[in-house]
Every structure is written in C-alpha cells, then in structure tokens.
Amino acid sequence: MNLTAKQSRFADYLGHGLNATESYRRAYNASRMSDVAIRVEACRLAKHPKVAARVDFIRRTRPK
Q: Any idea what the Cα angle at residue 36 is, between residues 31 and 37, rounded to 5°?
C-alpha cells in the first residue's frame, strides 16, 4: 500500500482506537480548520480504499 506519511499516521491512529476526528487532528495540521471541516475530511479519508485497508490490517493484527 502506498500511503503518504500523513495517511499512514492517520490509519495508525484510527487502527489503534482513536476516532477519525482525533486521528485526523494528530496526523494533519488542522489547527486552522473548523471542527466541521475536520469531521468531513476525516470521514472522507477514512473511506479512502488504501487507508481503509491499512486500518483493517492494523485492527486484525494488533494484539488484543
């Protein structure tokens, strides 16, 4: 999977249990974005096929 560094960080955060909004805030520079814009972008990114595949892989392989 060829993800950008930011996409990879977002997927890692999401795969390890953070919600999409907080994952987006930590992975991207969202300090100048509104809460609504962050939610929209986080939702869009979480649905990206490569990101979703990475999140699924992390969730399936992480220790319980």
A: 60
Residue 61 half-sphere exposure toward CB, CA atoms < 13 A = 7
Residue with tokens 């595949």: 53
Tokens for 44, please give them: 């869009």
Yes or no: say if 54 and 15 are a contact pair by the CB < 8 Å rule: yes
| Per-residue pLDDT tens over the stretch 12-60 | 999 999 999 999 999 999 999 999 999 999 999 999 999 999 999 999 9
pTM of the model: 0.92
pLDDT for residue 35: 97
Report the C-alpha gap between 28 and 8 in whole angstroms. 11
